[in-house]
Amino acid sequence: MDKVQIWGETLRLIVELSATAAFALAGVIEAARKRLDAVGVCVVGFLTAFGGGTLRDLLLDQRPFFWVQHVEMLWGVLGLCVLAMAFLRHRHFELTERAIQVPDALGLGLFAATGTHQALLLDLPGIVAVLMGVITGVFGGVLRDVVCNQIPAAFHGHRPYTVCAFAGGWVYVGLWQVAAPGWVALLACVGVTAGLRWLALWRDWELPAWKP
Amino acid sequence: MDKVQIWGETLRLIVELSATAAFALAGVIEAARKRLDAVGVCVVGFLTAFGGGTLRDLLLDQRPFFWVQHVEMLWGVLGLCVLAMAFLRHRHFELTERAIQVPDALGLGLFAATGTHQALLLDLPGIVAVLMGVITGVFGGVLRDVVCNQIPAAFHGHRPYTVCAFAGGWVYVGLWQVAAPGWVALLACVGVTAGLRWLALWRDWELPAWKP
Amino acid sequence: MDKVQIWGETLRLIVELSATAAFALAGVIEAARKRLDAVGVCVVGFLTAFGGGTLRDLLLDQRPFFWVQHVEMLWGVLGLCVLAMAFLRHRHFELTERAIQVPDALGLGLFAATGTHQALLLDLPGIVAVLMGVITGVFGGVLRDVVCNQIPAAFHGHRPYTVCAFAGGWVYVGLWQVAAPGWVALLACVGVTAGLRWLALWRDWELPAWKP
After folding, report:
1. Is B212's Cβ below 8 Å from some Cβ in A?
2. Closest chain C residue to the Cα of A91, Cα to Cα
3. Is B39 within 8 Å of chain A by CB?
4. What is the Cα–Cα distance from A182 to A159, expressed in whole angstroms?
5. Among A9, A99, C132, C200, which has the highest number of CB atoms less than 10 A from its own CB?
6. Is B74 on the interface with C (CB under 8 A)?
7. Min CA distance, A5 vs chain B (Å)?
8. Distances (CA, A) of C63 to A12, B13, C53, C59
């Protein structure tokens, strides 16, 4: 591998790890708000971090799961949950939630790209591939909210989140179909997803409300 | 194919499509009641329409999913959700719910038959086949209610719904075991399921209450 | 088979059946508390009894499910649910819940051992095997609570439950890696899991609270 490629791989790995950590932290914070016990905090952290990708692999019938191939991610998230319980206090929650918005948005884009990519490799149609991308990025949080007994924030928040991944997924599919190089499609998907998400947060965009 | 067969196929397709639409609409209405945002409305519509069949295919390890083979159904449900958000108003909800009872009951029977059939094809025992039929017909609504953070209506409503599919499934299994032609078993299963369901609605039947 | 082995097999079967019954009863009682109808009571009984093992088999891509191979267990749980609805009354609930603590703790250990064993057979890493054991033992109850629209007791109760299965799973993995005979590993896993669980109940142990 030449130098640029190594750089690219390293960057990708950093984004993936920090996004997984961001997802796990979002789960830990939600679990703490619901006053789960120590076990519940760890389980919800795991579900949020790995739930989306696992559901995608289940639907696409892919084995082994990514967290079976990279067992160190399991240990990492477990360690993160324990550290969070040791050091994170209520007054840090809001700050942490703001801090993880950056890796979270990047991760949403990266996971959307990964999910879409895997489905395209299996020759699935465009819309199915995009759905798999969305599921990878979003359903960790959905499972977290189901276990925490609340309506998933992704479907209730009126702040664009899922649609960003949806748009990014279509960008990936489009670039794939014109046979663009993989890193271009990846970058474009992450850029569009995270860009839209940041715009939505920055400009206070809201989904058009349906008042039936 | 002779003329009768083509007629039968067309009829079956009409029932399947209208039932899928009925399920999606039931999801959209529930999502609206819970004040989900536009994304949530679509996701819950998808879950309700495709959740049961997808869970059945997951359990039976069947790939590709039916909505991967018929991608136009995904587009159709997406379009339906958008149309519903554009034109459906609160005052239409009750009317719509009454109107979809007919395709919903027919669909419950058809989905029960399809699920039972697929399991029997895999040489699974009768009770497993019936369970797969029930799951196909009922678990879309269960997933909808789990995501909408309420106890599933199918387990809570005291109005027979799941049992109708259960009865229809056994009819299918019985006719299969005496090697009746497929269309007879299908018709009988749909007839028994939908018939019981309509009787239950019409005569205000309630499941025997357990007051422990 | 010599006499000891037959004895061992019989004992194992007794523990497995009584644990499944205990799980189903726990589901039935929860469903009654939430005032589900007769269908809901049976479904929640099934989910609690078979949900954990089914999720494990889904994740490990194992078919057929154990309840497809042993269809009589489905009939048994169905019969148990009907019997419970016929004879169980509110005033029996607390007594029943205390009575099922013994088979429940034994079953938690046995299911943890089974899940861990299956994953080790597939050459999965230790932590993944332990997770599969935990999922087998705990996720039936989690699914029950999700359907009953409450935060899973396993994550909220502050009484050690999941951690007992976690500890027992590691014992199994350790003994497997030193190539101890299967029945030793099984006994040790059940002993550690159930022993810890009973100690926790008897001594009123609580998980360290995280008050963030």
Report:
1. no
2. C212
3. yes
4. 30
5. C132
6. no
7. 35
8. 36, 31, 12, 11
Q: The dihedral of CA A57, A58, A62, A66: what is its sign?
A: positive
Task: State CA C137 to chain mean position distance.
Answer: 4
Q: What angle do CA A200, A204, A209 make, to 5 degrees?
A: 90
How high is the ipTM of this complex? 0.90
Nearest-angstrom CA–CA distance, C161 and C137: 10
**Minimal-distance CA residue of chain B relative to A157:** B37
pTM: 0.93
pLDDT tens-digit readout, C145-170: 999 999 999 898 788 999 999 999 99
Tell me whether B120 touches chain A (CB under 8 Å).
no
Chain mean pLDDT for chain C: 90
Question: What's the pLDDT tens digit per position in A128-179?
Answer: 999 999 999 999 999 999 999 999 998 987 889 999 999 999 999 999 999 9
Cross-chain Cβ contact C61/A65 below 8 Å: no
Handedness of CA A36, A41, A43, A46 (dihedral sign): positive
Q: Which chains touch C (3 or more CB pairs under 8 A)?
A: A, B
Distance CA A40, CA A44 (A): 6
C18-48 per-position pLDDT tens digit: 889 999 999 999 998 888 989 999 999 999 9
